[in-house]
Amino acid sequence: MHSDLRFQPIVLLLFVLLASFSAHATHIRAGEITAKRISSTALTYEITLTLYYDMQNGRDAANAADDINFYFGSVGPISAPRLQPILDVGNNTTKNVYKTIYTFPSPQEYKIAFTDVNRNNNILNLSPAPTQVISFYVHSTLEINASFGLNQTPVLLNSPIDLAAVGQRYIHNPGAFDADGDSLSYRLVNPQQSLSQDGRGTNIQYVDPNQIGAPGNTETGTSPATFSMDPVTGDLVWDAPMVKGYYNVAFVVEEWRDGFRIGQIVRDMQIIVEDARNDRPVVNPLPDICVEAGTLINQPVVATDKNGDKLTLTSTGGVYESTLIKPALAKFTVANQGALNTVSGIFSWQTGCDHIRQEPYDVLFKVEDAAAPGTPNPSLFRKLVDMTTMNIRVFGPKPQNLTGVAATDPAGTAYRLTWDPYKCQIPGAQIVIYRKEGCTNIPEDVCISGIPAGYGYDQVARVAVGQTTYLDNNNGTGLKTGVSYSYRIVVEFPRPGANINEPGSLIGGGESIASDEFCLSLPLVMPVITNVTVDQTQQTTGEITIRWTRPTAPPGLPAQYRLFRAVGQNGTAFTQIAAISTNLTPGAPDTFFVDKGLNTVANAYNYRIEYYYTQNNTLVKLDVTEPASSVRLQQGSALPNSIRLNWAAIVPWSNNNQVHRVYREDKANPGVFNRIADVPVLGNQTFTYTDDGTDKYAADGVINVPISTQLSYCYKVETVGSYNNSQIKPDILYNFSQIICVSASDTTKPCPPVLAIDLIDCATLEPDAFCNMLSFTNNLSWTYPQQVGGKDCDPNIAAYNIYYARYDSDTPTLLTKITTPPAPLATTYAHEGLKSFAGCYYVTALNGFGTESAPSNTVCKDNCPMFVLPNVFTPNGDGKNDVFQPLECPAFVQALEFKVFNRWGAQVFDTKDVNVNWNGKTNAGKELAAGQYYYEAAVTFEASKKDNKPYIIKGWVQIIR
């Protein structure tokens, strides 16, 4: 339910069917209630009740139900005729439809119900017997909410009339279709009856049909038999019935929009199981189809019958109904209808712009057999069916010819994008512009709309669907100079049939295929770092090689690269380590540097380059590169008989959607590393690999080892990345991590910090210490240990999480995350804006891979109680000291119970006002005589304990008049 309606009452609307004849309607096989809003200004709905009657056992009663009375709560009866004609839908069943128009009084959730007698007798899975006295009851739930706009419940297009056969698979699908394009889900529920005329249903004593009789087998002979409903497709499958007879089941079709359930329909239906001398036909499964709007679909459908029976192939779905979708409508043609053994049809649909939506179109195909000429004992023949559903997704067509040029703009660097007028000018649709740094290909897949996750695109703007141009100046701040930008556009659509002026209507209607990329390949006037690779892993003589590109368009020569280094992958305390002059001569050894004398065992390092050019014989800084860190390898959580590795690098290029390489030292040849695995990393997955000792890379020889907790194993990884920019060479970038040596029993994890809080010395405070203070601050500080319990702690801490709970009995929740910058990583935090000091905290540490430590010690802070009462007041009306109240200001008082007694112990006054404000009178307003009185104050102060006990203050006060 939508959150703003959560506490509103549910209104029960009873639909009571009162027949126009003396006996009630009887032998109802199935039914459901649907609703459709028909006014954009009033809460007016068309309510439809669809009932299926058993004509074999209750023809007279069913035919006599010409009129019914609808009751809406206390409103009614309202007479409504049955729609004509009565439809014969096969298998001795008729379909009766009743409609009424009703205007609901206010937006909220309504439960619409129907009940009537009777069901069929001898229903095997309902009790108590006789089942013909159990009433038939269904209900639907309708959520009326202004934020949802116009809405109609799904309609169920497939009648529940098909027979089941003993020992054969039975399938029913309701053929649900939602014209608004909302998402649907399905689940089984208990059939219900109504024991009163108030619209409330109660569960019937119900047994799963699959539990009737001895445990059975499926149609293929496996055990046990099954009975279930697919929550996504709505296929209700019983594989397979074992006992002939009547069964009743019920299921819910739930309707969802933007993550909220906005309605549900209950269908209660009867399954009749017969002994059949024939086998059911089979319709071949169909593939799901994804198309751009404007595509003509022609899908063959084939059904067969191994007995050579006569076959009828039909199809249902919203795509055939002009009341549910806009033309062009789909068609299903069967040239050899009624053929023996095999029947074929063609589903054809010319899709168009009006068919674009987020949810798929479900099209149901059903084949039914009939006795072929010459069938022995045709009276024993039972018509059986099979069905399958085809899902069709219709996306918006791909926007065409996206391009762009540099534009003059006061903000700085800007680009003017243009594209062709879009083919589908749907009112309310919007064109969404996406941008990323660097250029990259996205694999095309007609079943993937929009921008797939993991490719680094950010949404930068939305414009109306009729627009064909956009100026990107980074929202008025200008884009980066010299950076190649990739652009794509996607069109997003409103829900089908939505009123675009209503809230929430411009979302949820699906989207287009993403346009082709337009990439602004600008000259690289700045270098970019391409490699930070660890060459030597040592504590004092470690080495890292840094490489970068040579600019292509220098503004002035000679030039200079200045290389800076900071400790840590997120380090920002950069110091210059080299100045390299260059004339930008191709092939000159001026685009790499080997950084020596490092502790690559304990530290990762971060690098950046400042580029200077010559202007008026002076070196002038042009720009600074994005920083790039070395690859840091660490052991993950300890695992038995295996070693988990995690690695990370903070770099301006992308290491995603690549295959990284893992190496393990060959124990027979110390210092020689054998490549043991290639690790695909798709999207933004974590870089991780678990080594169980198996060498999964055979090209350099297979060296398998048993992973033992008694031995140490050494590893390094090689990341594979790319800028996805054709101007940056090499295209693929390889960088090694440091070497780590670990065992299966080792795990270097972040350790819990040690936390402290600034406590208050209440004894030294003045009574007015907190007067006029509107907010309070708690100051936290912590230290991070090097070792805990003799085990080393991970020294590479990237962040701290601070957790807070108002009371010590509450579960602390994440308050904030402390990350870099600043550098070094802060170990203090001021929790500001509090209403009091009371609260509890703990801190955790996180390494660069996001592994979080155990919580620190928990610290709690309490307030200083400030509540001081005087010993005298003079309620004589002179405006001075007329009221008895606390001195200064009461601080942190949560609740007060204050009582006054006279000298004989009789209570004369009480209040719960935290400021007391006693005027020297009784609660009845009678003035008290001058003299001495006694008080008792039970003061509950704001504290870190939720069940904080009141603080009792006893004293006396003198009234002077």
What's the layout of helices and strands?
Blueprint: E1 11-16, E2 28-37, E3 44-54, H1 55-63, E4 67-72, E5 75-81, E6 87-90, E7 93-103, E8 109-116, E9 126-127, E10 136-143, E11 155-156, E12 164-165, E13 170-172, E14 176-177, E15 183-189, E16 192-193, E17 202-203, E18 205-206, E19 226-229, E20 236-239, E21 245-257, E22 260-274, E23 282-283, E24 289-292, E25 296-304, E26 310-316, E27 331-333, E28 342-350, E29 361-370, E30 385-395, E31 403-407, E32 414-418, E33 430-437, E34 458-464, E35 469-472, E36 485-494, E37 508-511, E38 518-520, E39 529-536, E40 542-548, E41 559-567, E42 575-582, E43 592-598, E44 605-615, E45 618-624, E46 628-629, E47 632-635, E48 643-648, E49 658-665, E50 673-681, E51 688-691, E52 713-721, E53 733-736, E54 740-742, E55 754-757, E56 776-783, E57 787-788, E58 791-792, E59 797-805, E60 813-819, E61 828-834, E62 839-847, E63 859-861, E64 872-873, E65 893-901, E66 907-911, E67 931-941, E68 951-959
Parallel strand pairs: 1-8, 12-22, 24-30, 64-68
Antiparallel strand pairs: 2-3, 3-7, 4-5, 6-7, 8-10, 9-18, 10-22, 11-14, 13-20, 15-21, 16-17, 19-20, 21-22, 23-25, 25-28, 26-29, 27-28, 29-30, 31-32, 32-35, 33-34, 33-36, 36-37, 36-38, 39-40, 40-43, 41-42, 41-44, 44-45, 44-46, 47-48, 48-51, 49-50, 49-52, 52-53, 52-54, 55-56, 56-61, 57-58, 59-60, ...
